[in-house]
Amino acid sequence: MQTATTLEVLRKAVAGLRQDRARVALVPTMGALHEGHLTLVREARRHADAVVVSIFVNPRQFGPNEDLDAYPRQLAADTALLENEGVELLWAPEVGAMYPAGFATNVSVTGVSERLCGAARPGHFDGVATVVCKLFNQVRPDVALFGEKDWQQLAVIRRMARDLDLTAPHADAIVGVATVREADGLALSSRNRYLTPEARTRAGALPRAMRRAIVALLAGADAGGTLTAMEAEIVAAGFASVDYADLADAATLAPLPALGPEPARLLVAARIGGTRLIDNMPVA
Ligand SMILES: Nc1ncnc2c1ncn2[C@@H]1O[C@H](COP(=O)(O)OP(=O)(O)OP(=O)(O)O)[C@@H](O)[C@H]1O
Ligand SMILES: CC(C)(CO)[C@@H](O)C(=O)[O-]
Ligand code: BAL
Q1: Ligand 1 neighbour 233 (Cβ under 6 A)
Q2: Can you tell me which residues form the catalytic site (predicted)?
């Protein structure tokens, strides 16, 4: 596996891959890799001949009081994991290579960015859209893979890619990969490593409460009452607070106060022991 840390080396390496192989896949990450990321890498292989993974802890998507400094960085261990998966190219720029002095551009996706995590983390999706737009322009992948764990992020990126003609105009250029979970149902996340063993045990209550709510909704229970009961269950299990718990249209994330004919998604963000966890599931 080749590692590029400058744009010049990246462009040469991508050109080399393109000479040898037809299709290139991109898997953007912030590192601290786990089985969720490796599942994206394996899925990427099914869609392309060469796989490029980026590792970049993107300062622009962190708020002023968020965990940018604490975010786990383990490039050597990540490199070994990616080598083991047969990844062709790792793109691991420093902040100065991604945002050289004078950088002054912002990509902002209206609508789908505005609720849920967008409301709880002002500026977050502008940071995500800006860096993913840059990554797409840097690598020019035929296909890019993102996890459904970050459902709203996936929706924002799909909107941006369509609006800015960033990817090939086929429907599956942005592939969403199903959330990989621990045995107790907790979604794998780099931030799970912030949890104490006790908080980690309690955190399994989040997906359990969500599943119970979905069963109730499908049985015809009132949406408002079900969400309130679910929030209470999450807090009773030891979470400090619930940032949001909402039903949304699965494609646009438009508000969906009650179940209708549209496909719905249940999306939750909750805090435990100083760590903010997110999850989402289809109401199906
Ligand atoms: N459990 C998971 N299942 C599937 N994909 C995942 C999972 N966790 C992360 N991903 C995906 O991996 C990509 C990189 O995510 P990122 O590096 O932010 O990891 P993360 O575990 O989501 O970290 P964080 O704790 O910052 O949310 C994203 O597309 C994300 O949706
Ligand atoms: C897509 C992404 C790599 C952009 O920094 C990040 O938000 C992530 O890891 O989900
Ligand atoms: N996986 C989403 C990236 C973030 O929370 O900043």
Answers
A1: no
A2: 37
Q: What is the pTM of this model?
A: 0.97
Instruction: Count up the domains in the chain and report the number.
Output: 2
Give the DSSP per-residue string, 5-34. Answer: -SHHHHHHHHHHHHHH-S-EEEEEE-SS--
For 31-78, give the secondary structure using H, E and C.
CCCCHHHHHHHHHHHHHCCEEEEEECCCHHHCCCCCCCCCCCCCHHHH
Q: Which residues of the chain have pLDDT under 70?
A: 168-171, 257-258
Residue 182 within any structural domain of the chain: no
Domain that holds residue 247: 192-277
Opening angle at CA 13, ends 12 and 18, nearest 5: 95
Residue 170's pLDDT is what? 58
Of 114, 147, 177, the position where a domain reaches its end is 177
Place of tokens 């050109």: 15
Residues 96 and 208 in one domain: no
**Looking at this predicted complex, what is its ipTM?**
0.98
Q: How far is the CA of 148 from the centre of ligand 3 (A)?
A: 12
168 and 213 assigned to the same domain: no
> Ligand 3: does its nearest atom lie under 6 Å from the Cβ of 150?
yes
Query: Is 208 found in the same domain as 168?
Result: no
Return all residues near 202 (Cβ < 8 A) that are at least 6 apart. 237, 238, 239, 272
Are residues 222 and 88 located together in one domain of the fold? no
Atom 6 (ligand 3) nearest CA: 61
